[in-house]
Design a protein that fits this description.
This protein folds into two domains: 18-114, Phosphorylase Kinase, domain 1 (2-Layer Sandwich), CATH 3.30.200; 133-352, Aminoglycoside 3'-phosphotransferase, Chain: A, domain 2. It is α+β, with helices and mostly antiparallel strands. Helices cover 39% and strands 12% of the residues.
Length: 355
């Protein structure tokens, strides 16, 4: 039974000029030959991801979304650089093959990497895949452990010193995401001012050991082995990776985490199978991370609240594109509902905190 993540027909308005792409790829990657075909992975919400088949070879092409010319969240060169640095030492990282800023090919920078084939978990498990509670628990352990391995990578040894600015990271993140939310707010979006002020007033100092952080680490950005679905073989979507505070990275990941006892509105917006029997709670994930890192995390509510707020900003930015007609992707219409739910979750987290 086919369990691997499958591409689909390219969405209207997001087509590529195959002749130009074929010429570039065959000129740039030795050994490519045969006919070219393209499909699109339909589940992403930011950078666009295509499956390129050239003969028997399968490649993945990443490019920014149409309709905007962002140089930060959609910086292809930055994403390519971190893949180059990490791939030799962090085996879950895809192997990058070529990057170009030649606008004559598709009007924007893009890069191509090897495909890591396997299972990617979405909101519901693929038909034919089941996890017993003990297996789900093991998978959650593996997910956390791979995240910690990333944070344990010596970024200076692999040439990423200067890739980010770890000093003042927490302050820049709180202030920067607050500015982004205000800029992307639409008339039907919540104010979020109480949450932003709470985060601003309670910023902890930066963690003493800055690390490579993924900034979007979650189940649907990891690839599971088709033969052994408890084994993680790949980590995808490195567009927001940097050098910064690993606790902020963990908080961002847990912003996505919906557990089985969360309220119905939170369950409704969950996009991962984190509420299945046996799955870790957010508290259990924090405890395991603290044990592996040898630290105390008594007041993790700040990082979780930040993670929920940051996720709301991402959802609002995506909804903003739909609201203003910059994309025709109908999936984005309902994102405003998620923004409202995430505000309520953030407020509940604030209320539980001792900060």
């Amino acid at each position: 039974m086919e369990l691997t993540d499958k591409p689909a027909k390219v969405r209207q308005g997001e087509e590529l000029d195959l002749k130009l792409v074929e010429t570039f790829l065959k000129d740039s990657i030795p050994g490519l030959g045969g006919a070219i075909a393209v499909e699109q992975f339909p589940s992403g919400y930011s950078n666009l991801t295509y499956l390129i088949r050239v003969g028997e070879r399968e490649l993945v092409l990443r490019r920014p979304p149409f309709g905007r010319k962002a140089k930060t969240a959609h910086d292809m060169g930055r994403e390519y650089r971190i893949l180059n640095a990490l791939n030799p030492v962090f085996p879950y990282c895809p192997k990058p093959l070529v990057y170009t800023e030649d606008a004559s090919i598709m009007g924007c920078p893009f890069y191509v990497m090897e495909r890591i084939k396997g299972i990617i978990l979405r909101r519901s498990l693929p038909q034919g895949l089941e996890f017993a509670p003990s297996q789900m628990r093991s998978l959650c352990e593996n997910l956390l452990d791979v995240h910690f391995k990333l944070h344990s990578t010596d970024y200076k040894a692999i040439g990423l010193d200067g890739f980010g600015k770890p000093e003042g990271y927490v302050k820049r993140q709180v202030e920067g995401w607050s500015e982004r939310y205000r800029a992307a707010r639409t008339p039907d979006a919540p104010a979020f001012e109480t949450v932003m002020q709470w985060l601003h007033d309670r910023m902890p100092p930066d963690f003493s050991k800055p690390a490579v952080i993924h900034n979007d680490y979650k189940f649907d950005n990891v690839v599971l082995d088709s033969e052994d679905p408890l084994k993680i073989v790949g980590v995808l979507d490195w567009e927001m990776a940097t050098i910064g505070d690993p606790l902020m990275d963990l908080g961002s990941s847990l912003g996505y985490w919906v557990q089985s006892d969360d309220p119905p509105d939170s369950q409704a917006i969950g996009m991962q199978p984190t509420n299945l029997p046996g799955a870790f709670t957010r508290g259990e994930l924090v405890k395991r991370y603290a044990e592996k890192a040898g630290i105390r995390l008594d007041n993790f509510e700040f990082y979780l609240c930040f993670g929920l707020f940051r996720l709301a900003v991402i959802a609002q930015q995506i909804y903003y594109r739909f609201y203003h007609g910059q994309t025709k992707d109908e999936r984005f219409r309902a994102f405003i509902v998620a923004v409202h739910v995430l505000e309520k979750q953030a407020v509940r987290t604030m209320e539980r905190s001792n900060l």
